[in-house]
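[SOLVED] Need 3D model of a two-part complex

Original post:
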Amino acid sequence: MSVYLLQTVNGVGIGMLYFLLAVGLSIVFGLLRFVNFAHGVFYLLGAYFCFEAVRQGMSFWAALLVVPLFVAAVGWVAEKTLLRHVYAKPHEFHILITVGVALIIQELVIVQWGPLGDSVAVPTGLEGVVMWGDFIYPKYRLFVIGVTAGLAVLLWWVLEGTRLGSAVRAGSESPEMVSLLGINVFRLFSLVFALGAATAAIAGVLAAPIRGVEPFMGIEALAVAFVVVVVGGLGSFTGALVGGILIGVVQSVMSTLWPEGARLMIYVAMAAVLLLRPNGLLGKGG
Amino acid sequence: MRRNIDIAVALGIVVALPLLLSSGSLASEVLIYALAVLGCNLLLGYTGLLSFGQGIFFGLGSYTIGLMLTRTGLPMPLALVASIILGGLAAGLVGIVSIRQKGTYFVMLTLAFAQMFYFLAYSVPSLTGGDNGLLNIPRPPLSAFGVVLWDNTTAWQFYAMVAVIFLLVFVALHRVTTSIFGRTLLAIRDNEVRASAIGYNVPRFKLLAFVLSGAVTALAGALNAMMVGVAPLANAEFHVSEMILVMTVIGGAGNLAASLIGALFYVLAADWLSTLWPRWLMLLGVLLVVISLGMQRGLWGLIEDGFLALTGRFKRTGEIRVEEKQV
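Solution:
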């Protein structure tokens, strides 16, 4: 029994990372009606920048703060210089241009760090495990659950409780109207895109000590983020949270029952949800 | 008129490849990927469906022919037919679930299903060979009643067979795209709401296009496995889906001859550049960005414009929808 409890807790940990990955994608889609296929490479960049920072002697904690800012800058520049020019075009071109950006960044990562993966040490102070009775759990994973939960609350507050958040939510309904009300929507787009990149990068930094770094982790993360938003409902904050945790738990529990098929099962779970609820668990009907 | 031009271009390239290339496998590779691109183009260019899941059918085709040729005594043409049928069925399954969704949702689903198929192939090593893939797939001759009609020993002999198959499929797809069915697909691409209001069963047409596309792509995958002699797990990877889509876009969506140009460009560039600079994929990324920003009709559009400029007719044919929408 305790194996399943452990795997469920583990799943919540993985799921919170999945949430972090998906929520940026979801918010960007909500506002810009734009599925960002380069979202995975922001996660990739987060992980690699963290790897490089730690290798250069920077502490993991500093990397956790600085790396997302760097990646947000990359996202901001990409939005300003390239993506902005295709907003008016059919959605195929939104996808193609972000796929192009993703290819360029992924290849740059391989040029810089090589095609093979590497590992990142668990930060000092978080090595080892915690024990409560017969419940044993790695400290770092507990830390990840804590940080992502904190970030989830922070993001929720930003979206629901600040002026920026209300502009974003209003922009999701009607960018024209928000623009007529005197808000610079284009600046809002850039800002939200950079924010989305930053959340993906934080997920990358946090994931690096768990799963190491390798150049193709971006596409894998992108697919998982898609599964999460498809399951939870695109454009919904709560949807990303529920979807992320559900998918994390499915993957984690299945990895004890059928290790080879654990990855497969998250896609099976997605297909099952889709057949029952085509718009996702929390998606709007229609 | 246009139709004859497209078929002439296809025939011209098929005949020119042996004269220009020294490697028969490289020439076969061009036509094999061109088949897969035709399948993708039928969706993107004619139905307006952007699919990131073409690798599913390519990989499935490879595995099917591998299993048929190594474990059953099925003659090669029937094994190819089996791949085509399975590809169509798989496309039907993926299609039923994903076609209910529109726009970007559909695209995300095809990508998720591509990953699903990869992990499926990975988790049933008894059928797919897992990480190693299916090895030692033979390239049997084409024979009927014990008489060898066409030997496939050398790369160029195999090219000839692939070329015949390619041209047959090309002409068949031409018939399809110029038929009433094809015109209906174009109507759906251009205005789905209107097509459905007129009374067309839009999901059914989309599903049919998807099945057709899956069947053609599986045929390409099967021929690829016969050419290289293995059905590797890599054939089911996301990279294959991406590659097929990139070839389609580079060539130009909405025109069948453009698909051949796209595959030709990609395969030759890969062959040439990958020895010079292993990270040449970055250039493809740049090309995709350029195409999205301004060259939306791909290489074919470029060729068409150049040709029209030369012949003094500055009229644009406007194959692909250029719909400007205000943000």
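Edit: DSSP finds eleven helices and two strands in chain A.
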